[in-house]
Every structure is written in C-alpha cells, then in structure tokens.
C-alpha cells in the first residue's frame, strides 16, 4: 500500500483516510465486489492508525461529510435509515457468564468430530475433553 505510506509521511498535516463502501456491512448481494475494499481498509487501519479516518458503509450515494467530521475516532460506521451506527463490545453481565444449570455434553462414540486449530494447547485440551465425554474419532487440523 504505497499510497498509505506516502500519505502517512505528509507531515505535519497528514490527511485522514476514509473508505466509503455501499451495503457491504448490511449484506447486500451487490456489495460483494466491495468486500475486498473492506478488507484492504482493515489492513490500512491497523498499519497506519495515525492517518486512519474510518470505514463508512453508505446507504445512499451521497458523501457523508458530517459523519466524517463528527465521527472521528470511530473505526467502522454503518449508515442505516439515515443514522450513523457503530458497533461496540460491552462486558457480558455476570449472571450470563455462568449457566443456571450445569450443561452436560454428550458425544457419540460412532460420531466423528473435527477440531480446527487443534495443534496448540487449547485444541489438545478440547480433544481430551471430547475423549473423556465419549468421543472416539477426532480429527485434529
């Protein structure tokens, strides 16, 4: 991404880069071609955070200058029904962390179970748990 490199070097007033897409985050079928641009923007955001302005998914072809101005600091903005929306992670309430009743797992000895990413500690622990619960055929990938 040489363009991002040169933009990041244009100090002291390096411009912010905003990527505008249409309907990708909303899952529109016509937006498939723009999905690569969505992926490229995620890379740009991680490699050049000082010049990253944001990714804006539009619902109409108008350029949202107000969102670009007031949405500073938001990584991804999806405009839906004319309202700019952002996604946030929030902590899970404590009462939802632990189930009220114990969960019982049952695996069938004749079944086959696939564990991906299984060659590290977590995958091997998961495989051991499945064996303890009755699984006999496990594929580790």
Automatic annotation (TrEMBL):
InterPro entries in the record: NAD(P)-bd_dom_sf, PKS_KR
Ketoreductase (KR) domain mapped to chain residues: 111-141
Pfam families referenced in this protein's UniProt entry, alphabetically: KR
Full protein name: Ketoreductase (KR) domain-containing protein
